[in-house]
Amino acid sequence: MNAPAPFESFLVFDGEKKIAIEKDTKVPNAAIFTVNKEDHTIGNLLKHQLLKDPQVLFAGYKCPHPLEHKFILRVQTTSDTTPADALTSAITDLMAELSLFEERFRSPSSSSSSLFCSTIFRVRRKRTADPHEALVISLKRPKQMSAVTEPIICFRASTTNLKVFI
User: Fold this and answer.
1) What range does the domain containing 129 cover?
2) Within the chain, where are the H helices?
3) What was the pLDDT predicted at 110?
4) Rounded to an integer, what distance in angstroms lies between the CA atom of residue 30 and that of residue 82?
5) Residue 77, Cβ neighbours under 10 Å: how many?
6) From CA 19, how far away is CA 31, in angstroms rounded?
């Protein structure tokens, strides 16, 4: 079989860098970041977080091949900041946002029934017919498209287990 071993998708081996930075010579104030052992999950989050920064002119990523566990992120910024600084800021902001998400997810006495995390997804608590509580995670669409959200994952929690419905 041509597929690599499963552990090769997440283990960084000796001599292998997690992130490689290369200056993009085609456009001014731009860089190409190659992130090893990651995929669309982190690539898409970083791209969206970078595009929120007014100093970032362009951010995009691609995964070269499904069997290669890496993605290539291109970032172009204004002359006021560097692409590396913009990426560092985006990572810091994402970590803070995910920490807030985790804190509110673990807190059962949250006063609000909905938790908005940026423009990526929304989490809301929903009472179901059974006594267990369900969480629905849904994508937020831009206002031009529709205010309706579509659930992507539904968690049903009980005292003994957690079931995930996709």
Assistant:
1) 108-165
2) 40-52, 83-106
3) 52
4) 8
5) 24
6) 12
